[in-house]
Amino acid sequence: MYPNRHPGEGKMPYHCNALHSVLGILEASEGPAPQPGQPFKFTVGDTCDRIKEEFNFLQAQYHSLKLELEKLASEKTEMQRHYVMYYEMSYGLNVEMHKQTEIAKRLNAIIAQILPFLSQEHQQQVAAAVERAKQVTMTELNAIIG
């Protein structure tokens, strides 16, 4: 980028070296006052002011982008926290569902083993009760849940 610059040359920070180079070019290009019809040439002071304004603008833009990045990073962290919480809840519900399914299977097997030992009248009552138990409605579930 700066072909005349050698590694290690100059102890100024990078942005100072760049400003120094720009000022050197501008000072070398300044000539006599512009004649009518010629484009206006900026003075070193005007150019420095413009560079300073642009630098301040870029610095403000950098600051606002940095704040936005920090905000997005904190939102990302919060979203990850929520994801983990929902995953744990989902896993717990899945385990509980399998547990309840296994309990229902075992209770059904117990009923099937005991049913033949009941009288015909009681067998019909138990069979009807089991069928009613299988017909759970959303209203009943909502009442149970709470």
From TrEMBL:
Instruction: Provide the protein's localization.
Output: Nucleus
Q: Does the keyword Nucleus apply?
A: yes
Q: Is the keyword Nucleus assigned to this protein?
A: yes
Which Pfam family is one of those matched by this entry? TLE_N
Q: Could you tell me the keywords of this UniProt record? A: Coiled coil, Nucleus
Please give the coiled-coil regions recorded for this protein: 48-82
**InterPro entries from the xrefs?**
Groucho/TLE_N, Groucho_enhance
- Boundaries of each Groucho/TLE N-terminal Q-rich domain copy? 40-146
Q: What is its main location?
A: nucleus
Q: What is the superkingdom listed in this entry's lineage?
A: Eukaryota
Give the family this protein belongs to, as stated in its UniProt record.
Answer: Belongs to the WD repeat Groucho/TLE family.
Q: What is this protein called?
A: Amino-terminal enhancer of split-like
